[in-house]
Amino acid sequence: IFTLGDELRDSLRHPGVAAPLRVRIGITDSVPKSLSHAFMRPVFDLAPEVSMACQEGLATYLLAQLAAYRLDLVLADEPAPSSFPVKTHHHLLGSCPIVLCAAPRHATRLKARFPHSLHGAPALLPASHSAMRRTLEPWFESHGVRPRVIAEYEDGALMTLAGADGLGFLPIPEAAAPQALARFDLRVIGRAGDCRATFHAITVERRDSHPAVHAITSAAHRILDAGA
């Protein structure tokens, strides 16, 4: 209501001037920053003026903001839980393999005899409740591998910085790996079998009727399908 009031006030002050396209996006900490930007970039081509507001945080907080209509869309690596009190709709954007990476001083050693070389190796992993962690744990167990977890992260960007500092190996969605490798001088040591990172757009509307939401979901499909 407040947003609509602001738009009405602006249109009365400046008759004949098109209002900017407004979109409010929530991004969970588990979605790589490079992918978030790539998904959102086409929005800026939709109109002469775009007003985008981005919030980052935990899924529970962002979903509450979405339910209160303070956000138009939440980008996440899993759908809203079935126990969430407000009905939401998730749009599957796609998925990509998960690769394990490390700083150069560890990569050569860990790449040899992969994945058994990961047993006892220092690991930087997503938080235990995260979708990626739940995907990786059975894969570790299937190979009899038990890494030495030295840190767990809610924020994937912070985890990547720790990996670049040589503190341990870490998982990265393959679609985000080229940027991470180039920017942080990491090396791929192997792919985590059939494990995949999945991404979702969550809305309160069944259809992505907002033009910015449609642009984001379309871009995400193209990016993830290209690296599938």
* Number of β-strand runs: 8
Query: Low-confidence spans: pLDDT under 50, at least 5 residues?
Result: none
Radius of gyration from the alpha-carbon trace, in angstroms: 20 Å
Count of helix runs: 8
Strand content: 25-35%
Would you mind describing this structure in some detail?
- This protein is α/β, with parallel strands linked by helices.
- The chain contains 8 helices and 8 strands, in the order αβαβαββαβαβαβαβα.
- It has helices at residues 2-13, 33-40, 59-67, 104-111, 131-142, 156-164, 177-184, 211-226, and strands at residues 21-28, 50-57, 73-76, 89-102, 122-126, 148-153, 170-173, 187-203.
- The strands form 2 sheets. Strands 2-1-3-8-4-7 form a 6-stranded mixed sheet, with helices on both faces.
- α2 packs across α8 (211-226).
- The protein starts with a helix and ends with a helix.
Q: Can you describe this structure in just a few lines?
A:
Helix content is 36%, strand content 29%. The protein has 8 helices and 8 strands, in the order αβαβαββαβαβαβαβα.
Blueprint (SSEs and pairs):
Blueprint: H1 2-13, E1 21-28, H2 33-40, E2 50-57, H3 59-67, E3 73-76, E4 89-102, H4 104-111, E5 122-126, H5 131-142, E6 148-153, H6 156-164, E7 170-173, H7 177-184, E8 187-203, H8 211-226
Parallel strand pairs: 1-2, 1-3, 5-6
Antiparallel strand pairs: 3-8, 4-7, 4-8
Helix pairs in contact: 2-8
Question: Which key terms come to mind for this protein?
Answer:
elongated, two-stranded parallel sheet, alpha/beta, 228 residues
